[in-house]
Amino acid sequence: MSAALQVTAFGLALLSTLFLLLATCTDCWMVNADDSLEVSHKCRGLWRECVTNMQDGVRTCDQYDSILADHPVKIVVTRTLMITADLLAGLALATLVLGLDCITFLKEDPCVKLKMCYGAGVIFGAGSILGLIGSVWYAVDVYVERAMLVSHNIFLGVHYDFGWSCWLGMAGSTGCFVASVLLTCCLY
């Protein structure tokens, strides 16, 4: 039972870590959600803003000037939290691989392997909380920005909704949290 639970947690953790990495690297955290006839599709992300022409499929991206340049708080905080969550999830995944019962590393000392699985669960928990805070922070800021424009009757021709990168960040963080719960609470 313990080995099956470990492998299940490992599979979920691997998939969730990949989701977190994809969310951090991709640039579609906000998408335009205009109801009119669109000729282009805009995505804003943590690293650049991309526009795709819907007629011919040509995509052009404008990278932000510098990582150290003045950026909105939502971008800086989300970058920091997501990168930290990625690093923690990667460390936890490496620790979990070494702690699995099916790996021959430290086979003679099962107590140490169990502690490694618990440690991986705690690290996954910390990473999942940081990733969830980063994703939700960005999503709430997009919502507040849109609500402020609507409440002031300002229409700029386009408004933004949450993009698939934001949803990937939330899904990856939630998956890491579930893997953390499996490793810390259910591994007896």
How is this fold's topology laid out?
Elements: H1 2-25, E1 30-32, E2 40-44, E3 48-53, E4 59-63, H2 73-99, H3 110-151, E5 160-162, H4 164-185
Antiparallel strand pairs: 1-2, 1-5, 2-3, 3-4
Derived from helix and strand composition plus strand pairing, the structural class reads alpha+beta
N- and C-termini, Cα separation: 9 Å
Please give the radius of gyration in angstroms: 20 Å
CATH structural class = Mainly Alpha
Report the total helices: 4
Name the beta content range: 5-15%
Q: Shape, please?
A: elongated
Number of strands: 5
The number of domains is 1
Element order: H for helix, E for strand: HEEEEHHEH
Name the average pLDDT. Answer: 84
What CATH calls the topology is Butyryl-CoA Dehydrogenase, subunit A, domain 3
Low-confidence stretches: none
Strand count, sense and barrel status of the largest sheet are: 5 strands, antiparallel
Q: Any idea what the CATH architecture is?
A: Up-down Bundle
- Strand adjacency order, main sheet: 4-3-2-1-5
| Amount of helix | 55-70%
Question: Would you mind describing this structure in some detail?
Answer:
The protein has 188 residues and is α+β, with helices and mostly antiparallel strands. It has a single domain (3-27, 71-186), classed as Butyryl-CoA Dehydrogenase, subunit A, domain 3, CATH 1.20.140.150. 61% of the residues lie in helices and 12% in strands. It contains four helices and five strands; from the N terminus they run αββββααβα. The chain has helices at 2-25, 73-99, 110-151, 164-185, and strands at 30-32, 40-44, 48-53, 59-63, 160-162. A hairpin with a 5-residue loop joins strand 3 and strand 4. Helix 1 (2-25) packs antiparallel against helix 2 (73-99) and helix 1 packs antiparallel against helix 4 (164-185). The mean pLDDT is 84. Belongs to the claudin family. It is found in: Cell junction, Tight junction; Cell membrane. Residues 1-28 form the signal peptide. It is a multi-pass membrane protein.
